[in-house]
Amino acid sequence: MKRSLLVFAVFFAMCQIVLAQGKKAVTGTVKDAKGDVLIGVSVQEKGTTNGAVTDVKGHFSLSVAPNATLILTYVGYAKQEVAVGDRSTLSIILQEDNKNLNEVVVTAMGVKKEARKLGYAVTALNGDDLKKSAPTSIGAALYGKAPGVTISGAPGGATSAVAIQIRGVNSLTNNAQPLVVVDGVPIRNGDANTGDYYADTRIRGNGLLDINPENIESLNILKGAAASALYGSDAAAGVIVITTKTGKKGKGLGIDFSATYGIEKVGILPDIQNVYGPGYDRETNKASFGADDDGWIQLGDINGDGIADKRPIYRSYAQFGPKFDGSDISYWTDGSIRKYNAHPDNWKNFYRTGNQGVYNIAVSNSNENVTYRLSYTRNDYRGVQIGGDQGKNTFNLNTSIKITKRLTADVIASYINEKVHNRPELQNRISGNYGGMFSSADDINDYFATYKNKAGYKYYMYNSPIDPNDRLKYHIRAYDFMDFLWKQLQNSYDETSNRYMTAATLNYDFGKGLRLRGRMGNDYTGYRSEFKEYSTQPTAFDPTGGFTTANEQHSILYGDVMLMYNKSLTKNLGLNVNAGYQARKEEYRYETAATNGGLVQENWFSLANGAIEPSKATSTRKSFVKDAYFATVGFDINNYLFLEATGRYERASTLAPDNNAFFYPSLSAAFELSKAFKLPEFVTYSKLRASWGIVGNPPVMYAANVMYVAGRYTIVNPTTGTNGNFTYYYPDQNQGNLNLENEKKREVEIGWETKFLNNRVGFDVAFYQNVTNNQILKLDNALSAGSVTMLRNVGSMQNTGVELSVNGTPIQTKSFQWNARVNVAYNKNKVKELANGIDQVIVNNVDNGSLNVVAKAGSSYGDIYGYKRMTNENGEYLINNDGYYVLDYSKMQKLGNTQSKYVGGMMNSFNYKNWNLDALVDFRYGGQLISTTNYYGTGAGLFTNSLEFRDAEHGGLAYYKDAAGNKVLVSNGGAPAGAKIYNDGVLLKGVKEDGKTPNDKVVEAAEYYLNSYGWGGYPGSGSNLYEKAIYDNNYIKLREVTLGYTFRTATLQKIRFQNLNLSVFARNPLYIYKSIPNIDPEAAVGTTIQSRNVETGTTASTRTFGVSLRASF
């Protein structure tokens, strides 16, 4: 709070500086050639950030410096400059611009080009598009905004990585994330492989999280191989080119301030049934726990009140016990008597209300030789999961210096300091595991009260070694949940990182179209973590706890030099030639040490405090070097035909010296139909484009190396009795390959762009097909080779797709304007071939191979295989003698695919006078998701869908038990006298194993769930229906909503502001439709392609509601 007050104090102090500056007041009206007023025209004082927007009457009012010049811009109209002179009132007429807007985008190697001259697809977004709803990261801001780009945001908030996939899966095992280039320098990003069940269950982040949305001027996505070929082997997954904000030319100090605060709530909670408490099926309850027919354990009169006491089976993970009826029970914490009622808000109370505050201030200024922008951003984040928080400081400097008339320098520097305490944990040991589930019979507050005992040690399920009375009264099942609380609320996992990113560029203009550019940059991150595990019991009984510390260093040193020549050879022929050299070195160091055997002195976190000496220590060091020569040649023919060829010759140390050089070419063409031909008047602009290119994907560092492991053999001399030691070497079990090559992706793309009605309506459609050959796979090796596996280049994979973007202004009046954009993309993936003799590669598996995610030759990457229910020739299910489905364990069969077929979004912007409303809806269709949370929640009787069959109201059949214990359906004649009737019978539809006789075996509902949703779905594991863990993954989501008000110019003039906007926003407020129950469709975590749409227990997704203030003066 103090930090926030300080930022606001600085903000208002700056206001006083501005108030002291005297300026001239200018008012005016802006109209078109027909005399109609134009609303929303941008009016800016040249060389400054001072500006205004025309109101509903076309009026504007502005305070400007003497002799100022105004720049007026408006969509569909030519930009116009107007000198104010000695006038105080202006009347301005804008002329329509019937030509295509000459939008400039940043392409490969930082070269700026007119969009109309490009022969490949580029999605260009400006900074304002990315920050309206205050996203937690740049990746999260891209949902639905770029056709062909699939975003998968992991729950976990500001510290969790977001997966970005461009035009499908391109590699079976290698990097799946696009290259990120900031101000011309490639930065560290990478995959975050989160999904470990036992070891590291933290939800990890990646490098893109450090890019501050407040500092972004533009973001361009290079999707095809031709667009990104100049980046060679870094570009198989596409390239994201980010340009940060610079200072503006002109006189005067410019100050921008923003403050955003959001409240974070849990988005999706599981639909828990609150009808039944803990317990198994009747026979298990009786045989294993001594319970009665209704699931009660009778205790006798334990409190001396003369009334017999009872309790349910707290030890049960399943929820098939007694109905909640408000009766008195002995409770599990201390045996006290409580009412047997459900606690429907347990899952809600498991989480907390989170919040995020982002405060940014930027100062910019310039003179004729220097421009600069200096900014500071403070980000405080507290997510919905208990125990964790994050604080981040970001400083950014962007400076441009005119050294001489021909020589300029640009210097950009960023420093990011981040501290994370107890980053979010996966909940796979809670919702994806029977050992962590808690019942509605439990009050979750009691878990918070008992995970730590009175002495401050970890809870005791049984007798305490300190105090026999300091234990839980009854054994509970949710021990993994208690461990989760101890880990998040008692243990401490602190991470501190310091990241420095710089880029220094020199530009020399020789004149006559010849220029030279040289650039140096770096991206360095120093990371330190400390894991403090508190002692769980007194050291006298046994040392526990521990201390682990780790240091990491990631470093990228980058440089390039490029000579650029642009010349008009004739009136109708232009030439553009670029040639250069690029080099990059990356280094990684990791050192860690930990105590061993617990802590001698309780909770003294020092490496010297380990019970067993010495402490464990490990270290890792990696590095690689990559360099390349590159060139481009482009022709401008008649200003409507644009041809370009590029080439990159690259060498990389990740491959053997004799096999580490590759060539990556591209060709592209753009043909502007609207300039070449006289088209109908309603066609404003039209262009055809086509391109072809090759990019690559290298193996990870050292993977290609052929490694040998040292061993020692001791021989005893029988004569002297002395030992002789001999060193020998044997191949590593996982062998590299000196003949290994980069994966190579070849891509063809054609496209058509058209705009109508003076840019009122437009569309852009692209068709592409890419094939990635030389897939790098780890294959079994011959035993004679001395290793188990070897990396090989085998197989290929293809993606074929269509991308469509339609934009327009459906309504435009004097006071209202509606702009809309729709993006839709379709992608079809095919694994064309694998190695000889290999039909498929398993890329992920669930529950020890109960379900496999595979890449199968002839099919699509991400096919889900499992064991299906067996049927007869008529398609009727076979039922075994116990009344359960018979599974066909003879072969695994296809049950779905994890890849979505269609993705897209729709953006709408409504402007009425000074109000604006922006809304973004995105969608996904086709493909499936594996959810063990749903599988286990159903099997445990935890979710409401498991109420089916439990009573007559939910479809349960009436039955009684005969003398032999068989369950017999109640017929019209009723049950025999004295027989107890149950109403939870299940008679599965199907036939007996003979394939003909209708099934007549009745089972209890609890038996059905417990025997059909158990752990393990492989031969010999019974009738577990893992196909029930697969769900269609379709959704339509309202992703962002922002309602803002921009204060009128007249109002701002009084307080000397240039711009002032106040808005409220909602991020991820609701799903309009989703096909999967109980979890968020985006619940699967990790950025690796292998982890996509495989949900094995994650943390909750969130909704955010907030307010934002933005001001310029």
TrEMBL record:
- Which GO terms are recorded in the biological process aspect for this UniProt protein? siderophore transmembrane transport
The UniProt keywords, alphabetically, are: Cell outer membrane, Membrane, Receptor, Signal, Transmembrane, Transmembrane beta strand, Transport
Signal peptide residues are: 1-20
Question: Which family is annotated?
Answer: Belongs to the TonB-dependent receptor family.
Please provide one cellular component term from the Gene Ontology annotations of this protein: cell outer membrane
Q: What is this protein called?
A: Iron complex outermembrane receptor protein
Topology of the protein relative to the lipid bilayer:
Multi-pass membrane protein
**PANTHER family cross-referenced by the UniProt entry:** HEMOGLOBIN AND HEMOGLOBIN-HAPTOGLOBIN-BINDING PROTEIN 1-RELATED, TONB-DEPENDENT OUTER MEMBRANE RECEPTOR
Predominant location category: membrane
SUPFAM superfamilies in the cross-refs = Carboxypeptidase regulatory domain-like, Porins
* Domain annotation TonB-dependent receptor plug: ranges: 116-239
Source species of the chain: Chitinophaga skermanii
Q: Which GO terms describe its molecular function?
A: siderophore uptake transmembrane transporter activity
